[in-house]
Design goal:
- It contains eleven helices and twelve strands.
- It has 371 residues and is of the alpha/beta class.
- The chain has two domains: 130 residues, Alpha-Beta Complex (Aspartate Aminotransferase, domain 1), CATH 3.90.1150.10; 236 residues, Aspartate Aminotransferase, domain 2.
- It has a seven-stranded mixed β-sheet with strand order 2-8-7-6-5-3-4, sandwiched between helices. Strands 9-10-12 form a three-stranded antiparallel β-sheet, with helices on one face.
- α4 links the parallel β3 and β4.
- α3 packs across α7, α5 packs parallel to α6 and α10 crosses α11.
- The longest helix has 24 residues.
- The protein starts with 30 loop residues before the first strand and ends with a helix.
- The structure holds pyridoxal-5'-phosphate.
- The site of pyridoxal-5'-phosphate has 14 residues, from α3.
Length: 371
Protein backbone atom coordinates (compact mmCIF):
# COMPACT_ATOMS: atom_id res chain seq x y z
CA UNK A 1 0.00 0.00 0.00
CA UNK A 2 1.38 3.42 -0.84
CA UNK A 3 1.16 6.01 1.86
CA UNK A 4 -1.27 8.90 1.36
CA UNK A 5 0.95 11.70 2.62
CA UNK A 6 -1.96 14.12 2.90
CA UNK A 7 -3.86 11.69 5.10
CA UNK A 8 -1.31 9.72 7.13
CA UNK A 9 -2.70 6.64 8.85
CA UNK A 10 -3.01 6.47 12.64
CA UNK A 11 -1.05 3.44 13.84
CA UNK A 12 -3.76 2.34 16.25
CA UNK A 13 -3.00 -0.88 18.11
CA UNK A 14 -4.99 -3.52 16.18
CA UNK A 15 -6.75 -4.73 19.32
CA UNK A 16 -8.23 -1.24 19.78
CA UNK A 17 -9.63 -0.95 16.25
CA UNK A 18 -13.33 -0.14 16.17
CA UNK A 19 -13.72 0.00 19.97
CA UNK A 20 -15.92 2.55 21.70
CA UNK A 21 -14.93 4.16 25.02
CA UNK A 22 -16.56 2.49 28.04
CA UNK A 23 -19.16 4.27 30.11
CA UNK A 24 -22.65 4.11 31.52
CA UNK A 25 -25.10 6.60 30.00
CA UNK A 26 -24.92 9.98 31.80
CA UNK A 27 -28.51 11.12 31.40
CA UNK A 28 -30.04 14.12 33.13
CA UNK A 29 -33.07 12.53 34.79
CA UNK A 30 -34.63 13.14 38.25
CA UNK A 31 -33.49 9.84 39.82
CA UNK A 32 -30.02 8.60 38.87
CA UNK A 33 -29.61 5.15 40.37
CA UNK A 34 -27.29 3.64 37.77
CA UNK A 35 -23.64 4.01 38.84
CA UNK A 36 -23.71 3.25 42.59
CA UNK A 37 -22.91 6.79 43.65
CA UNK A 38 -23.67 7.93 47.18
CA UNK A 39 -26.98 9.84 46.79
CA UNK A 40 -26.03 12.35 49.49
CA UNK A 41 -23.98 15.39 48.47
CA UNK A 42 -21.25 16.45 50.91
CA UNK A 43 -22.63 18.45 53.85
CA UNK A 44 -22.12 22.21 54.08
CA UNK A 45 -19.36 21.70 56.64
CA UNK A 46 -17.53 19.17 54.43
CA UNK A 47 -17.87 21.50 51.44
CA UNK A 48 -16.50 24.41 53.49
CA UNK A 49 -13.53 22.39 54.73
CA UNK A 50 -12.75 21.06 51.26
CA UNK A 51 -12.91 24.59 49.84
CA UNK A 52 -10.58 25.91 52.57
CA UNK A 53 -8.14 23.03 52.01
CA UNK A 54 -8.11 23.65 48.27
CA UNK A 55 -7.51 27.36 48.87
CA UNK A 56 -4.51 26.51 51.09
CA UNK A 57 -3.16 24.04 48.50
CA UNK A 58 -3.61 26.67 45.78
CA UNK A 59 -1.03 28.98 47.32
CA UNK A 60 1.60 26.36 46.41
CA UNK A 61 0.37 25.33 42.97
CA UNK A 62 3.49 26.71 41.30
CA UNK A 63 5.25 23.71 42.90
CA UNK A 64 4.82 20.04 42.06
CA UNK A 65 2.86 18.15 44.72
CA UNK A 66 4.29 15.68 47.24
CA UNK A 67 5.02 12.73 44.93
CA UNK A 68 4.61 10.18 47.70
CA UNK A 69 1.74 11.94 49.54
CA UNK A 70 2.84 10.76 52.98
CA UNK A 71 0.18 12.78 54.83
CA UNK A 72 -2.65 11.33 52.77
CA UNK A 73 -1.29 7.80 53.21
CA UNK A 74 -1.15 8.31 56.98
CA UNK A 75 -4.76 9.58 56.97
CA UNK A 76 -5.88 6.58 54.90
CA UNK A 77 -4.14 4.18 57.30
CA UNK A 78 -5.89 5.86 60.25
CA UNK A 79 -9.21 5.63 58.47
CA UNK A 80 -8.84 1.90 57.70
CA UNK A 81 -7.87 1.25 61.29
CA UNK A 82 -11.08 2.91 62.49
CA UNK A 83 -13.22 1.29 59.79
CA UNK A 84 -11.99 -2.30 60.00
CA UNK A 85 -9.72 -2.52 63.04
CA UNK A 86 -6.67 -3.36 60.91
CA UNK A 87 -3.50 -1.44 61.76
CA UNK A 88 -1.35 -0.59 58.74
CA UNK A 89 1.79 1.46 58.28
CA UNK A 90 1.35 4.48 55.95
CA UNK A 91 3.99 2.86 53.68
CA UNK A 92 1.47 0.06 53.10
CA UNK A 93 -0.99 2.48 51.50
CA UNK A 94 -1.11 3.69 47.93
CA UNK A 95 -3.49 6.11 46.22
CA UNK A 96 -4.36 7.19 42.71
CA UNK A 97 -7.01 8.94 40.65
CA UNK A 98 -9.75 6.43 41.37
CA UNK A 99 -9.32 2.74 42.00
CA UNK A 100 -9.43 2.41 38.23
CA UNK A 101 -5.96 3.92 38.15
CA UNK A 102 -4.89 1.77 41.09
CA UNK A 103 -5.74 -1.33 39.03
CA UNK A 104 -3.80 0.07 36.11
CA UNK A 105 -0.75 0.48 38.36
CA UNK A 106 -1.17 -3.13 39.54
CA UNK A 107 -1.31 -4.46 35.99
CA UNK A 108 1.56 -2.26 34.84
CA UNK A 109 3.70 -3.65 37.64
CA UNK A 110 2.59 -7.29 37.68
CA UNK A 111 0.92 -7.90 34.29
CA UNK A 112 2.12 -7.03 30.81
CA UNK A 113 2.89 -8.88 27.56
CA UNK A 114 3.15 -12.64 27.95
CA UNK A 115 1.35 -12.56 31.29
CA UNK A 116 -2.23 -13.27 32.27
CA UNK A 117 -4.79 -11.73 34.59
CA UNK A 118 -7.85 -13.69 35.69
CA UNK A 119 -11.19 -12.94 37.29
CA UNK A 120 -14.51 -14.71 37.72
CA UNK A 121 -17.68 -13.50 35.99
CA UNK A 122 -20.14 -11.99 36.32
CA UNK A 123 -17.91 -9.25 37.66
CA UNK A 124 -16.77 -5.68 37.03
CA UNK A 125 -16.75 -4.94 33.33
CA UNK A 126 -13.66 -2.71 33.55
CA UNK A 127 -11.28 -5.56 34.45
CA UNK A 128 -10.82 -6.84 30.88
CA UNK A 129 -10.18 -3.25 29.77
CA UNK A 130 -7.35 -2.78 32.30
CA UNK A 131 -5.85 -6.02 30.97
CA UNK A 132 -6.23 -4.93 27.35
CA UNK A 133 -4.72 -1.50 28.00
CA UNK A 134 -1.65 -3.00 29.66
CA UNK A 135 -1.25 -5.75 27.05
CA UNK A 136 -1.99 -8.39 29.66
CA UNK A 137 -3.69 -11.64 28.62
CA UNK A 138 -7.21 -11.98 30.02
CA UNK A 139 -8.92 -15.12 31.27
CA UNK A 140 -12.34 -15.16 32.87
CA UNK A 141 -13.65 -18.07 34.93
CA UNK A 142 -17.22 -18.50 36.13
CA UNK A 143 -19.00 -17.87 39.36
CA UNK A 144 -21.82 -20.20 40.45
CA UNK A 145 -25.50 -19.71 39.69
CA UNK A 146 -25.89 -17.87 43.03
CA UNK A 147 -22.84 -15.68 42.15
CA UNK A 148 -20.64 -17.30 44.77
CA UNK A 149 -17.19 -18.50 43.74
CA UNK A 150 -16.42 -22.20 44.19
CA UNK A 151 -12.93 -22.38 45.77
CA UNK A 152 -12.19 -25.55 43.77
CA UNK A 153 -13.10 -23.83 40.49
CA UNK A 154 -10.87 -20.87 41.40
CA UNK A 155 -8.01 -23.14 42.42
CA UNK A 156 -8.19 -25.17 39.20
CA UNK A 157 -8.39 -22.08 36.99
CA UNK A 158 -5.34 -20.55 38.66
CA UNK A 159 -3.38 -23.81 38.38
CA UNK A 160 -4.33 -24.14 34.70
CA UNK A 161 -3.71 -20.56 33.52
CA UNK A 162 -0.85 -19.61 35.92
CA UNK A 163 -1.86 -15.92 35.97
CA UNK A 164 0.35 -13.26 37.52
CA UNK A 165 -2.69 -11.26 38.69
CA UNK A 166 -6.03 -12.40 40.14
CA UNK A 167 -8.78 -9.79 40.49
CA UNK A 168 -11.60 -10.54 42.93
CA UNK A 169 -14.33 -7.98 43.56
CA UNK A 170 -15.85 -8.45 47.01
CA UNK A 171 -18.51 -7.18 47.43
CA UNK A 172 -18.77 -7.93 43.74
CA UNK A 173 -20.17 -5.61 41.08
CA UNK A 174 -22.76 -6.10 39.57
CA UNK A 175 -23.98 -8.84 41.91
CA UNK A 176 -23.38 -7.23 45.34
CA UNK A 177 -22.22 -10.56 46.76
CA UNK A 178 -19.17 -10.80 49.05
CA UNK A 179 -16.68 -13.67 49.23
CA UNK A 180 -16.12 -15.58 52.48
CA UNK A 181 -12.58 -15.72 53.89
CA UNK A 182 -12.37 -19.41 52.99
CA UNK A 183 -12.66 -18.56 49.28
CA UNK A 184 -10.18 -15.70 49.39
CA UNK A 185 -7.76 -17.92 51.33
CA UNK A 186 -8.13 -20.72 48.76
CA UNK A 187 -7.32 -18.22 46.01
CA UNK A 188 -4.33 -16.87 47.97
CA UNK A 189 -3.06 -20.41 48.44
CA UNK A 190 -3.45 -21.26 44.75
CA UNK A 191 -1.75 -18.00 43.78
CA UNK A 192 1.19 -18.75 46.07
CA UNK A 193 1.76 -21.95 44.07
CA UNK A 194 2.02 -20.22 40.68
CA UNK A 195 5.63 -20.51 39.45
CA UNK A 196 7.10 -17.03 39.21
CA UNK A 197 4.46 -15.60 41.53
CA UNK A 198 0.94 -14.26 41.38
CA UNK A 199 -0.68 -11.33 43.18
CA UNK A 200 -4.30 -11.27 44.34
CA UNK A 201 -6.21 -7.99 44.42
CA UNK A 202 -9.47 -7.96 46.37
CA UNK A 203 -11.44 -4.99 45.08
CA UNK A 204 -13.41 -3.70 48.06
CA UNK A 205 -14.85 -0.62 46.36
CA UNK A 206 -18.05 -1.33 48.32
CA UNK A 207 -16.32 -2.62 51.46
CA UNK A 208 -17.93 -0.10 53.83
CA UNK A 209 -21.39 -1.34 52.89
CA UNK A 210 -20.72 -4.95 53.91
CA UNK A 211 -23.23 -6.45 56.31
CA UNK A 212 -22.30 -7.15 59.91
CA UNK A 213 -20.29 -10.37 60.02
CA UNK A 214 -18.95 -10.03 56.47
CA UNK A 215 -15.17 -9.81 56.83
CA UNK A 216 -12.78 -7.44 55.05
CA UNK A 217 -9.75 -8.94 53.34
CA UNK A 218 -7.72 -6.21 55.06
CA UNK A 219 -7.58 -8.71 57.94
CA UNK A 220 -5.62 -11.12 55.72
CA UNK A 221 -2.92 -8.64 54.72
CA UNK A 222 -0.53 -9.36 57.58
CA UNK A 223 -0.02 -12.99 56.51
CA UNK A 224 -0.08 -12.59 52.72
CA UNK A 225 2.56 -10.44 50.99
CA UNK A 226 0.98 -11.23 47.57
CA UNK A 227 -2.41 -9.79 48.61
CA UNK A 228 -3.65 -6.24 48.02
CA UNK A 229 -7.00 -4.76 49.00
CA UNK A 230 -8.24 -1.83 46.94
CA UNK A 231 -10.76 0.70 48.17
CA UNK A 232 -12.19 3.95 46.86
CA UNK A 233 -13.60 7.24 48.10
CA UNK A 234 -16.08 7.18 45.19
CA UNK A 235 -18.84 5.15 46.84
CA UNK A 236 -19.18 5.17 50.65
CA UNK A 237 -17.41 8.52 50.96
CA UNK A 238 -19.67 10.18 48.43
CA UNK A 239 -16.66 11.61 46.62
CA UNK A 240 -16.88 10.08 43.14
CA UNK A 241 -16.17 13.47 41.56
CA UNK A 242 -12.85 13.83 43.38
CA UNK A 243 -11.35 10.64 41.87
CA UNK A 244 -9.52 9.08 44.78
CA UNK A 245 -8.92 5.34 45.01
CA UNK A 246 -6.41 3.58 47.22
CA UNK A 247 -4.86 0.23 47.99
CA UNK A 248 -3.39 -1.50 51.02
CA UNK A 249 -0.73 -4.20 50.77
CA UNK A 250 2.66 -5.20 52.13
CA UNK A 251 5.28 -2.48 51.60
CA UNK A 252 7.21 -4.30 48.79
CA UNK A 253 3.94 -4.61 46.83
CA UNK A 254 3.31 -0.88 47.23
CA UNK A 255 6.90 -0.06 46.32
CA UNK A 256 6.40 -1.88 43.00
CA UNK A 257 3.46 0.40 42.22
CA UNK A 258 5.60 3.45 42.99
CA UNK A 259 7.90 2.44 40.13
CA UNK A 260 5.18 2.50 37.44
CA UNK A 261 3.13 5.51 38.52
CA UNK A 262 3.51 8.67 36.51
CA UNK A 263 5.43 11.32 38.46
CA UNK A 264 3.10 13.56 40.49
CA UNK A 265 0.03 11.57 39.40
CA UNK A 266 -1.97 12.73 42.43
CA UNK A 267 -2.41 16.50 42.25
CA UNK A 268 -2.02 18.73 45.30
CA UNK A 269 -5.69 19.66 44.89
CA UNK A 270 -6.77 16.01 44.94
CA UNK A 271 -4.64 15.32 48.01
CA UNK A 272 -6.16 18.30 49.80
CA UNK A 273 -9.73 17.30 48.93
CA UNK A 274 -9.20 13.70 50.05
CA UNK A 275 -7.63 14.71 53.37
CA UNK A 276 -10.38 17.24 54.12
CA UNK A 277 -13.04 14.59 53.46
CA UNK A 278 -11.20 11.95 55.52
CA UNK A 279 -11.27 14.33 58.49
CA UNK A 280 -15.07 13.92 58.39
CA UNK A 281 -15.09 10.15 58.06
CA UNK A 282 -17.08 9.56 61.26
CA UNK A 283 -19.97 11.66 59.95
CA UNK A 284 -19.82 10.04 56.52
CA UNK A 285 -19.81 6.56 58.02
CA UNK A 286 -23.04 7.29 59.90
CA UNK A 287 -24.63 7.95 56.52
CA UNK A 288 -23.33 4.63 55.23
CA UNK A 289 -25.27 2.95 58.05
CA UNK A 290 -28.53 4.44 56.82
CA UNK A 291 -27.77 3.40 53.23
CA UNK A 292 -27.17 -0.16 54.44
CA UNK A 293 -30.54 -0.20 56.19
CA UNK A 294 -32.18 1.22 53.08
CA UNK A 295 -30.48 -1.51 51.00
CA UNK A 296 -31.68 -4.32 53.26
CA UNK A 297 -35.22 -2.96 53.15
CA UNK A 298 -35.11 -2.78 49.36
CA UNK A 299 -33.88 -6.37 49.07
CA UNK A 300 -36.79 -7.46 51.30
CA UNK A 301 -39.31 -5.45 49.31
CA UNK A 302 -38.21 -6.91 45.97
CA UNK A 303 -38.25 -10.47 47.34
CA UNK A 304 -41.72 -9.98 48.78
CA UNK A 305 -42.84 -9.22 45.27
CA UNK A 306 -41.55 -12.53 44.00
CA UNK A 307 -38.39 -11.27 42.34
CA UNK A 308 -35.00 -12.93 42.59
CA UNK A 309 -32.50 -10.73 44.39
CA UNK A 310 -28.81 -11.42 44.92
CA UNK A 311 -27.60 -11.07 48.51
CA UNK A 312 -26.08 -7.59 48.70
CA UNK A 313 -23.17 -6.34 50.76
CA UNK A 314 -22.98 -3.25 48.53
CA UNK A 315 -24.98 -0.05 47.97
CA UNK A 316 -26.89 -1.57 45.06
CA UNK A 317 -29.13 -4.50 44.41
CA UNK A 318 -29.17 -6.92 41.46
CA UNK A 319 -32.66 -8.21 40.79
CA UNK A 320 -34.61 -10.06 38.13
CA UNK A 321 -35.29 -12.16 36.27
CA UNK A 322 -37.14 -10.45 33.43
CA UNK A 323 -37.85 -11.88 29.97
CA UNK A 324 -37.35 -8.40 28.51
CA UNK A 325 -35.14 -6.45 30.87
CA UNK A 326 -34.62 -3.73 28.31
CA UNK A 327 -38.34 -2.95 28.39
CA UNK A 328 -38.27 -2.71 32.20
CA UNK A 329 -35.18 -0.46 32.08
CA UNK A 330 -36.83 1.76 29.45
CA UNK A 331 -40.14 1.88 31.36
CA UNK A 332 -38.33 3.07 34.48
CA UNK A 333 -36.39 5.65 32.49
CA UNK A 334 -39.65 6.94 30.99
CA UNK A 335 -40.74 7.53 34.60
CA UNK A 336 -37.55 9.44 35.44
CA UNK A 337 -35.66 6.58 37.10
CA UNK A 338 -32.33 5.58 35.55
CA UNK A 339 -30.98 2.17 36.60
CA UNK A 340 -28.39 -0.12 34.96
CA UNK A 341 -28.90 -2.85 32.43
CA UNK A 342 -25.98 -5.03 33.42
CA UNK A 343 -25.18 -8.54 34.61
CA UNK A 344 -26.46 -11.90 33.38
CA UNK A 345 -29.42 -11.97 30.96
CA UNK A 346 -32.66 -10.86 32.60
CA UNK A 347 -31.13 -9.08 35.60
CA UNK A 348 -31.06 -5.36 36.39
CA UNK A 349 -29.07 -3.36 38.94
CA UNK A 350 -30.37 -0.44 40.99
CA UNK A 351 -28.26 1.75 43.28
CA UNK A 352 -29.58 2.56 46.74
CA UNK A 353 -30.68 6.20 46.70
CA UNK A 354 -32.30 8.49 49.24
CA UNK A 355 -35.58 7.20 50.69
CA UNK A 356 -37.44 9.46 48.23
CA UNK A 357 -35.48 8.05 45.28
CA UNK A 358 -36.04 4.48 46.41
CA UNK A 359 -39.76 5.24 46.64
CA UNK A 360 -39.75 6.66 43.11
CA UNK A 361 -38.00 3.49 41.91
CA UNK A 362 -40.50 1.23 43.67
CA UNK A 363 -43.51 3.16 42.35
CA UNK A 364 -42.16 3.04 38.81
CA UNK A 365 -41.27 -0.66 39.02
CA UNK A 366 -44.73 -1.62 40.33
CA UNK A 367 -46.21 0.02 37.23
CA UNK A 368 -43.71 -1.17 34.67
CA UNK A 369 -43.37 -4.76 35.85
CA UNK A 370 -47.01 -5.03 37.02
CA UNK A 371 -45.88 -6.25 40.48
C1 LIG B 1 -17.19 1.81 41.35
C2 LIG B 1 -16.17 0.72 41.37
C3 LIG B 1 -14.83 1.03 41.56
C4 LIG B 1 -14.41 2.45 41.84
O1 LIG B 1 -13.84 3.06 40.81
P1 LIG B 1 -13.18 4.51 41.07
O2 LIG B 1 -12.24 4.59 39.95
O3 LIG B 1 -12.50 4.49 42.40
O4 LIG B 1 -14.29 5.50 41.02
C5 LIG B 1 -13.91 0.01 41.60
N1 LIG B 1 -14.29 -1.26 41.49
C6 LIG B 1 -15.58 -1.61 41.33
C7 LIG B 1 -15.95 -3.04 41.25
C8 LIG B 1 -16.54 -0.62 41.26
O5 LIG B 1 -17.82 -0.95 41.07
Amino acid sequence: MTADLARPALPLRPELAGLEPYGAPQLDVPHRLNVNENPYAPSEQVVADIAAAVARASTDLNRYPDRDFGDLRADLAAYLRAESGVALDPAQLWAANGSNEIMLHVLQAFGGPGRTAISFAPTYSMYPEYARDTNTGWVVGRRDEDFSLDPAVARDAIAEHTPSVVLLASPNNPTGTALPFATVEAVLDAAARVPGGCVVVVDEAYGEFRRRGTPSSLELLADHPHLAVSRTMSKAFGLAGARVGYLAAATPFVDALRVVRLPYHLSAVTQAVARAALAHSAELMAQVGSLRDERDALVGWLRERGLRVADSDANFVLFGVFDDRRAIWQGLLDRGVLIREVGPAGWLRVSVGTPAETQAFKDALVEVAAL
